Structure formats: C-alpha cells, structure tokens
Amino acid sequence: MTYEQSSEHPAAQGEAPATELRVGVVGIGWAGQQHLKAYSELEGVRIVSLAGMEQDLRDSLQAEYAIPNAFADWQDMLDHGGLDAVSVAVPTFLHAPIAISALERGLHVLSEKPIARNAVEGQAMVDAARKAGRVLDVAFNHRRRGDIQALKGIIDQGGLGRPYYAKASWLRRSGIPTLGSWFTNPELAGGGPLADIGVHALDYALHLLGEPKVLAVSAATHSELGPQGRGGGSQYSALASTHAFEVEDFASAFIRLEGGGTLLIEASWATYRETDDLLDFTIYGTDGGAELKVQGAPFPPVGQLRVFTDKDGESADYIPPVVPGRAHDAVVEDFVTAVRGGEAVWGEHDGSLALYRAQIIDACYQSAREQREVRL
Hints:
The strands form three sheets. The chain has an eight-stranded mixed beta sheet. A six-stranded parallel beta sheet has the order 3-2-1-4-5-6, sandwiched between helices. It has helices at 30-40, 55-64, 74-80, 95-104, 119-132, 146-156, 186-189, 193-208, 233-236, 327-340, 343-346, 352-370, and strands at residues 21-26, 45-51, 69-71, 85-88, 108-112, 136-139, 163-171, 214-222, 250-257, 262-268, 278-285, 289-295, 304-308, 310-311, 314-315, 374-375. It is an alpha/beta fold. 33% of the residues lie in helices and 23% in strands.
C-alpha cells in the first residue's frame, strides 16, 4: 500500500501516510544534495522527482538515486504530479513561489532557510500551509549539532541558572558566496550574511535560550570589502567578478529579550580576522556560563564546548560529553515524521517559527537603515 492521493488534492482527507512517501526535490546544489541523501536513507520514502537547471548534474543525480522523473523547471515537476512532499533547496527568492504552489496542490513542504526574502513572503507561505492543512518546515540544520544539543540539555536542566546574556556568531574572513550571483543581490537573496548565515546563529541562539520573545533590536550593517572585490577567496570564486556588490558583508544586532535578557548576533562573509570560519555561542547565567566554539569550513562535527560553574565556592568547570549531530539527516527525518503524523500534528508544523526568525531579521535591517532601535 502506498501513500495515495486524490487527483484533485494530494494526501487528501488528512490521512496519515501508509508505507511509502513520494517526494520531489527542487534544487541540485549542495543543499539539495543533502536532502536527496537524507531521503534516500529513510525507509518507506521514495524520491520520484528532481528539478534543477544544470543538466549534467541533474542527470548525474537522477542516475545516482534512480529517480524516475527529472525536470529543468520546478513548475513542470509539480504539474507532473505523483508527489506527497517537496523539498525546496533553491535561491531564496524562489522559496515562496515554489512552496506556495506546492502547498496549494496539497503537498507538504520542507524549505531551506531562510523561509523567504522577508517576513511578508514568509507570512504568505505560512498562510498557505494553514489553508492547505499541510506541513511547512524550514531547515535549520545547525540546531541539530550534537554540541548545541548537549548545551541545550544543560541549560534546560538548570545547569546555568537563569541566562541573562548570550552571544552567537558565524564569522568568515573570506567567504562571500560568489560576487555578482544571487547571493549578493538583495532582490534575490533578501540580504547578505545576516539573512544567509546570521539567521542560523539567531535560530540556534533562541533555541538554546528557550524561545524567548524578542522585544526590540538595534542593528548595524557594513559593506566594506565586497564592493572592492575583496572577501571572496578561491573557495567562493569571488575575486574575479566585476558585478556590483549590493548587500552587507558584516552585520551585528543587539537584541532585547522578554524577561530582561539580551542577545548579540554577529554575521560576516568578509572580515579581517583569523582564517578559519567560526561558529560560536557564549552564554552567561546566574549559576554558570558556557562557551561553544566550532572552527573550520566545513565545520567539524563536534566543537569545543566548556561549561563554567562552581561548587562550594570553588571552580567546577567541566567539558561535557558530546556526540556528533545529524544535521540535514535529522532535519529531513523530522519532516518525514511530521508528515507521517497526520492531521493531529500537521498544524504544529506551519512554518511559524521560521517566520518569527524572518520578522526579527527584517527588524534588524530596518534598524540598520534607520539607525535606531526597532521594537517588535
């Protein structure tokens, strides 16, 4: 028995899937390939369609995963039908049109981060998911890191007391992802490193802090190296480009949280700092603190996590045990689990958490433009 659909509304009647979930993947770059790999390893999931513009790569992936249908255009893939769920792993400006089109067809959607170019588009996606009664999840793979999960357990168990300050960042020295590409065009990407990688730092920080309400933001953006053709490095193929650089290459945001806590976010594609990329998190609480540093690109599966506390007036600092996380494998598995949960759980996965991230990022960009604090 397969996860059958009516011709008018796939996965109709709100029934939980049986033994086979038919999925399609739009996008064949690095992110799309992570989705393909993760789906291929799940029992009862069959990849039936693939869409991507680069024919040679598309043909190669179609053969590798024995995918019966492949298309250059995502609309052709959706029109072809035979799907229960879709992964959207394409440039940010396409997230909303593809996700909304899929949801209107009754398909469940897993989108790459950020949810969309801005909160207006993100809201349209959430509205479409709620109207369709389908799952809309957004891939935040870094919160699935084992070191972040270990720290989350310590915080949730009260090991640091009441947190009152935190800092999260993703910093690159020369990591502009191709000057002149969609990444550096605000109309296509929605922003620079704050929207691209800063949203990861924002997500895992709020996740670790227990999802506190954001009251206000005060942010600044800088565009210093990109406009000069610097900050790309050979890894990102940016140095030879003559196209305009139209987004920031560094951003910072001071965020006021409900309850009096504060959070600092930093994100850079290009900054004169040490060579290795840095993903980090620092937290200060009433009974302890912690620091996580993950260095190198690609990031190692386990970073350096230290916890600072005391016992009977003496230092009791320690290094907690950490196992590697599962990144996109966990993201895709959680998405499939939600889909298989049926109507009873679909409403809990409407993309609203990712939308909240977009609302905060939008407020940060507004604050930077207007050089003032913006309240949410």
